[in-house]
Amino acid sequence: MILRKYIQRRLSAYFSQPENAVIGTLPSPVDFRSLWGEAHYRRVVASLRPYAADGGDDEAAGRWLTPAELFRPHYGRIVGRYISDHFERTAAATGRPLRILEIGGGGGTLAASLLDYLAEERPGLYETATYTLMDGSATLLNLQRRTLERFGSKVFFFRADVGDVVDSCGLDSYIGTSDAPTYVCGFELLDNLPHDKVTRCSVTGGIFQTELHPDDDDSGTLSERCVPLTDPLLTKILERVPSYEAGRGGRWIPTVACALMDEIYRARPNARLILADFDSLPPPDLCDRSWPLPEGRGAAAATRPALGRPLVTCLDGIDHGCYLRSPQLCDILFPTDFRRLASYASAAAAAGEEGDDGPGHEVMVQKQGDFLAGPEVEATKSWITGYTPLLEDFSNCSVLTAAPPEKK
């Protein structure tokens, strides 16, 4: 079994749990203007743990409060301003309505904040706009429906696992094909998309893909095995972005994220991308001390080291050193190498537009704080020190945007 298939199965089981087990929602927005400074903000965030995953009060619980939830409604309103400004500059003159597709919509918080912004500040755009949410989790999709019920027929929903979309049915089977400008958003999506792992043979220099095979001791456990590269998707990714190839060690490759970009541009050649996620993750806080250990020892012996290693954590607030030796219901989060992903986005856009020789799209990567900077930030600034968590917290997040070149 190729690695991404196993990770997709694990993540599908994780996100099939009840909604309050995997995502945090706050009963009301945080009043950031009442905070004194960073220390006060940290205390407030700590007090929000009962609203994070499963209501626990352990140190890890706050991880399930996403920036869109923690900074609501400001985060979604900023995204709404970015989209509407860009649309009015580049597409409003065509007379076509605004179309937004969000993949992995969480609890629907970002969509609600964004649509509220359009209704209040850009009513002309809002009147004809539509917002579609795609999610692989039935429980989260139900939560999104409840959150967005007040928007009526303006919002559409469909259930589809990204892994299945890129492997078989195709995105166009859900949204059709069109050259209409469509804003495709993913916030904290990339970190939960299945990855593969490649290594380079130290003798021949050849590239190997990683597969999972049963151990020989009849225990039912699996271990990684490196075999020569044959997977068509991995081969295409490495041809388009050679820097993804492993150097002296292995490297995790965001195969499903790359394939999703191909699907987006195949169905919507004029798509505009907005993808925000973690560009780095903290090391695991391990109780079993299984990570890092030399290969062949401890729980980590089933896997080989590689750049971009995932963080594996369960809802008991425990991190695990090996995705193969962790409980079945665990979150598996990957950091995103935005520089390499941007290179793939450029290639995918060019291929979707006019074949590999197409002009491509303008792709930009920014730190999240730089992307969010704007007039809405004042509403999140603490009143004594001026600390602004919307810009200064989540410093390990970046945003990738891609769009057709603007006409001068």
Q: Your description of this structure?
A:
The chain is an alpha/beta fold and about 400 residues long. Helices cover about 35% and strands about 20% of the residues. The protein has helices at about 5-15, 20, 40-45, 65-70, 75-90, 110-120, 125-130, 140-145, 160-170, 170-175, 230-240, 255-265, 340-355, 370, 390, and strands at about 100-105, 130-135, 155-160, 180-185, 195-200, 205-215, 220-230, 250-255, 270-280, 305, 310-315, 320, 330-335, 360-365, 395-405. It has a seven-stranded mixed sheet, with helices on both faces. Strands 7-6-5-8-10 form a five-stranded mixed sheet. The protein has a three-stranded antiparallel sheet with strand order 12-11-13, covered by helices on one side. Helix 8 links the parallel strand 2 and strand 3. Helix 5 crosses helix 6 and helix 9 packs across helix 12 (about 255-265). The radius of gyration is 21 Å and the shape is globular. The model is unreliable at about 55-65 and about 290-300 (pLDDT under 50).
